[in-house]
Design goal:
- By secondary structure, the protein is of the alpha+beta class.
- It has 4 domains: 45 residues; 50 residues, no CATH class; 80 residues, no CATH class; 114 residues, no CATH class.
- The chain contains 8 helices and 8 strands, in the order αβββββααααβαββαα.
Length: 311
C-alpha cells in the first residue's frame, strides 16, 4: 500500500513539474507575443516626422526624417556645393551610409571577385597540368626516345596547355566586356524600346492614375505638411511669365491653409531670380500607408493592370 501511495505521489509530482514547465513556456511565449504586438503597434501608429528647411539663394538645404523621439533618424544636407547624408540611431551617427565605408565595401567586393577569378585560373592551370603530366607518362611508356625528342614533344604539350589558359582568359575577358556593353547593343536597345512602348500602351489602356486617384489623394492628405513657413520672392525677365506662374500658384487651393506661407512675384526685375527661405514640417503614420497598399491590391482593375505589364 505504501509503495502504491509513493508511486501515485511520484506521478503527481512529475505531472506538477510538467505543468510548471508548460506554464513557464506559456508565459514566455505570451510575453514575446505582447512585445511583438507592442512593437508592431509602435511601428504602425507612432508617426514618422519629417522636416525640410533651406535658403534658396544661398543653396543650403537640410532634410530630416525621424521616428519615435528620434531613436532612428535620417538626415541629408546640401551646403557649400557638397551633399552629406547619414543615419542616426539614439543620436549616434552610424556608418551605414558613410561614403568612405561604402567605397571600402566596394573595394572589398572587387577584391573578392579578383581572388575568385585567380582561384578559378589556378584550378584550370592545375587541371591542364594534370593532363600534361598524364600525356607525358603515357608518352614515356609507349615510346623510347632520347632526351631532346622528349623535350620537344612535352614542350609542344606545354604550349598547348598555355594556349588553353590564354584562350580561357581571353574568353572570360570578352564575356565580361560583352556583359558590360550589353546595354548598348542594338538588340538590347530594341528590347528596351519595345518594353517602353508596351508600358505606355498598357498605361494608356488601363489609366492607373485615374484608377488610384482617390486613394492617392487620401494618402497625400494624411502625409501633408502640418506647418509651412516660407517667404519666397521670384521674378522673370518677362513680366507676363511671372504673372502666369503666380496665377498658377494662386489656383492651388491647399496653400491657403498655411498662414505663414508668403509667395510674391517681382514684375519689375530685368533678370530672372528666386530667393527666400522655407521651413516645412509634417508626419505620416505607417498604418495609412498599409491601408493604401491593401486598398490598391484589392482593386481588381489594378491587378489586371499589373498582369498586363508583365514586368
Amino acid at each position: 500500500m505504501s509503495f502504491l501511495l509513493s508511486h501515485v505521489s511520484g506521478v503527481f509530482l512529475s505531472a506538477a513539474a510538467v505543468l510548471n514547465v508548460m506554464k513557464t513556456v506559456g508565459l514566455v511565449v505570451l510575453i514575446l507575443v505582447i512585445i511583438m504586438a507592442a512593437f508592431a503597434a509602435c511601428v504602425m501608429f507612432i508617426p514618422a516626422r519629417y522636416q525640410a528647411k533651406g535658403d534658396i539663394e544661398q543653396m543650403e538645404f537640410d532634410v530630416k526624417l525621424h521616428w519615435f523621439l528620434k531613436i532612428i533618424m535620417f538626415r541629408a544636407s546640401y551646403k557649400n556645393s557638397m551633399a552629406d547624408y547619414a543615419l542616426y540611431i539614439f543620436g549616434i551617427r552610424t556608418k551605414v551610409l558613410d561614403k568612405d565605408v561604402m567605397e571600402k565595401r566596394k573595394r572589398k567586393r572587387e577584391k573578392r571577385k579578383a581572388k575568385k577569378a585567380a582561384r578559378k585560373h589556378k584550378s584550370r592551370k592545375k587541371k591542364y597540368q594534370k593532363e600534361h603530366n598524364k600525356y607525358k607518362e603515357q608518352f614515356l611508356k609507349e615510346n623510347q626516345l632520347d632526351d631532346e625528342t622528349l623535350r620537344q614533344a612535352t614542350g609542344t604539350r606545354r604550349m598547348d596547355t598555355r594556349d588553353k589558359l590564354e584562350a580561357d582568359a581571353t574568353r572570360e575577358s570578352s564575356q565580361q566586356k560583352a556583359q558590360g556593353n550589353a546595354s548598348v547593343t542594338p538588340a538590347n536597345a530594341m528590347a528596351v524600346v519595345k518594353k517602353v512602348v508596351h508600358i505606355l500602351k498598357t498605361v494608356q489602356e488601363h489609366r492607373p492614375v485615374q484608377m488610384l486617384w482617390a486613394d492617392i489623394q487620401k494618402l497625400a492628405h494624411r502625409a501633408r505638411p502640418r506647418k509651412v513657413k516660407a517667404d519666397i520672392v521670384f521674378g522673370f525677365d518677362d513680366p507676363a511669365l511671372t504673372g502666369q506662374v503666380l496665377g498658377t500658384i494662386s489656383n492651388l487651393y491647399f496653400i491657403y491653409q498655411y498662414d505663414q506661407l508668403c509667395i510674391n512675384g517681382d514684375f519689375e526685375t530685368e533678370a530672372s531670380y528666386i530667393r527666400g527661405d522655407f521651413d516645412i514640417k509634417g508626419h505620416i503614420r505607417a498604418v495609412f500607408a498599409l491601408i493604401f497598399v491593401i486598398r490598391v491590391i484589392r482593386k481588381k482593375q489594378f491587378r489586371k493592370f499589373m498582369k498586363a505589364l508583365k514586368l
